[in-house]
């Protein structure tokens, strides 16, 4: 199935560069380009993309506000938003992930990671640039955070720890010697138990709960 992508960035050259990278993939189609946050929300309503690649600093409405509009509760067929920005400010990342983003990439992450992030978001997974994943999640941990939920099994905790380290489902499967399908099953169970919206929130919970080796 082809993944329909909307690009939202106020710089024409950035939009063109991203579009060119994605156009080389047989399973991805760029269906629209937005020049600001307001335009992004309007096009998302009209074009129903599967994934929105969203810059943060844009005129009229910034990417974080647009993200909240696109992921607000009750929205029908909400797209999965991946934030793509030059800024790795901790507060930006935190707000984006708390706002329901399915990924956070720096613009210098490279073409391969961009394509992987689009496919991951379309599959209901999340990808954060390795350059900021562990740094960010460590900083989000808190001494007052609650202890790990008692109803997570030992294997579920193993999977959660690897998610918190930024590993993909395939990498987790290889590390634990289980199938990718089994990893997805464990993550689905964990997501339900923690009432987490996506794997990023699972990773954030892991760091805040102190179950990840520093």
Automatic annotation (TrEMBL):
Annotated HTH luxR-type domain residues: 145-210
Q: Which UniProt keywords apply?
A: DNA-binding, Phosphoprotein, Transcription, Transcription regulation
Q: Which InterPro entries match?
A: CheY-like_superfamily, NreC/VraR/RcsB-like_REC, Sig_transdc_resp-reg_C-effctor, Sig_transdc_resp-reg_receiver, Tscrpt_reg_LuxR_C, WalR-like
**Protein name, per record:** DNA-binding NarL/FixJ family response regulator
Q: Which residues form the Response regulatory domain?
A: 4-122
Which molecular function terms from Gene Ontology are attached?
DNA binding
- Tell me which SUPFAM superfamilies the record gives: C-terminal effector domain of the bipartite response regulators, CheY-like
Gene3D superfamilies in UniProt:
3.40.50.2300
Could you tell me which species this protein originates from?
Answer: Kutzneria kofuensis
Top-level taxonomic group: Bacteria
Biological process (GO) annotations?
A: phosphorelay signal transduction system; regulation of DNA-templated transcription
Instruction: Give the 4-aspartylphosphate positions (modified residues).
Output: 55
Asked if the Swiss-Prot or TrEMBL record annotates the protein with the keyword Nucleotide-binding, the reply is no
């Amino acid at each position: 199935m082809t993944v329909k992508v909307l690009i939202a960035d106020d710089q024409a050259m950035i939009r063109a560069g991203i579009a060119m990278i994605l156009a080389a993939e047989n399973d991805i189609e760029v269906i629209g380009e937005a020049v600001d946050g307001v335009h992004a929300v309007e096009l998302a309503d009209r074009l129903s993309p599967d994934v929105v690649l969203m810059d943060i600093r844009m005129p009229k409405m910034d990417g974080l506000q647009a993200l909240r509009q696109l992921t607000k509760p009750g929205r029908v067929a909400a797209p999965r938003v991946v934030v793509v920005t030059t800024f790795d400010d901790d507060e930006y990342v935190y707000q984006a992930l708390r706002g329901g983003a399915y990924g956070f990439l720096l613009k210098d992450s490279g073409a391969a990671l961009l394509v992987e992030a689009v496919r991951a978001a379309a599959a209901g997974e999340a990808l954060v640039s390795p350059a900021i994943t562990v740094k960010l999640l460590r900083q989000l941990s808190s001494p007052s955070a609650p202890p790990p939920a008692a109803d997570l099994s030992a294997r579920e905790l193993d999977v959660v720890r690897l998610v918190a380290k930024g590993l993909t489902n395939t990498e987790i499967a290889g590390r634990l010697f289980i199938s990718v399908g089994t990893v997805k099953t464990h993550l689905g169970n964990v997501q339900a138990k923690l009432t987490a919206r996506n794997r990023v929130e699972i990773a954030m919970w892991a760091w805040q709960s102190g179950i990840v080796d520093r």
